[in-house]
Amino acid sequence: MNKSTVLVLFDDQEKSGKISKYLKDAGFNAVIAANLGDAEKLIPGGNIDLIITDDKVGVTKRFSHIGVFRALTAAPVIIYSAKASILDKTSGYEAGCDDYLSGTADIEELMLHVSSLIRRAKKSDNILVEFPPLAMNLKTREVTLDGKEVKLTNREFEIVYLLAETPNKTVNISEIYKKVWGENTPCDNHLVMVNISYIRKKFEKVLPNKSFIRTSWGVGYSFTYPPIPVN
Fold first, then answer.
1. pLDDT tens across 171-215, in order?
2. Domain enclosing residue 55, as ranges
3. What is the CATH number of the domain that holds 144?
4. What is the pTM of this model?
5. Which residues partner with 228 through β-bridges?
6. What are the backbone angles phi and psi of residue 133, rounded to the nearest 5°?
């Protein structure tokens, strides 16, 4: 299984540990850097897909570590800081961060931002995402299951990939609709349900005894890995 790797760097090791745990629960690999020097060693060979950090780490000048990251990797950088005024955010974006969240934001909101940034980055990198026996090509949008091609529509592909970003974690129906159909349209629960049904039927034709999608009734759907047996 191809998991995305997130580097976590905060002076507060308890905070690093907490965020790392949430990342792992959400299906990501999480690597904690003890300090900026440690991060500089981990980034080049660590296949880091995203970095979460504070506005200041160690004794460095505020935001100066963002420039260090930018010299080492093109991976997106999220600043997660208690200092999150408009002026703070402006300075952070000017320093080169990709996203800036208030430290008071819900941790689940942080996970959504992590998923979104990684998804965008991977789409531009043309990488293959694999959950054997399922494989997805993010550029061509080709999907194979047990070595056989499964033809999904663009919407169906986006739903599967959105769910697969956080394996075994339920994604709310409204969140699926917002991410796949857009934030400016009213949520249509039935439309999401219909597309999920089509995806299941297409997968079942190839792999009738197992399912990658679990329903949490009244809440949403999750991508299950390993796939669950179907009675």
1. 999 999 988 887 666 778 888 999 999 999 999 999 999 999 999
2. 5-122
3. 1.10.10.10
4. 0.56
5. 211
6. -90, 20
